[in-house]
Amino acid sequence: MLPLRLILSLMLVTLVAYTGAVISRHGLDLLAVFFGDLAKVGWAGQFNLDFMCLLALSALWVAWRHRYSPGGLVLALMAFLLGTLFLSIYLLTESVRARGDVRALLLGPRVHDR
Questions:
Q1: pTM for the complete prediction?
Q2: φ/ψ (deg, to 5) at 81
Q3: Cβ burial, residue 60 (10 Å; 0-12/13-18/19+)
Q4: Every domain of the chain and the residues it spans
Q5: CB 12 within 8 A of CB 85
Q6: What string of pLDDT tens digits covers the 114 residues of the chain?
Q7: CA-to-CA distance for 28 and 13, rounded, in angstroms?
Q8: Residue 77 burial by CB count (10 A; 0-12/13-18/19+): exposed, middle or buried?
Q9: CA gap 44, 42 in Å, rounded
Q10: Of 3, 8, 1, 4, the residue nearest 85 (C-alpha)
């Protein structure tokens, strides 16, 4: 579990630093750029569409893991909108709660209730 936590921590720190640099240079106009690239039907748009599908999959997993509870749906929305920023913190937190049990990490806290 330690290697996973180290990778997640590295991703989080790197992403926060990189995002800060982008915001300082280009502002917060992410959505216009994101959807503008999609509208151009080029490689940047293809990457954005692929990324958006991955965001949707991570959101579905988070919602499923929480059995589509209201709190789970809020977390899923955060997973979709915040991407790795959210998911790295979420997985770090849940890996501690799972106490190293990968099955509990992947399937949710009530895995033993089934």
A1: 0.87
A2: -80, -30
A3: middle
A4: 2-109
A5: yes
A6: 899 999 999 999 999 999 999 999 999 999 999 999 999 999 999 999 999 999 999 999 999 999 999 999 999 999 999 999 999 999 999 999 999 889 999 898 775 554
A7: 19
A8: middle
A9: 6
A10: 8
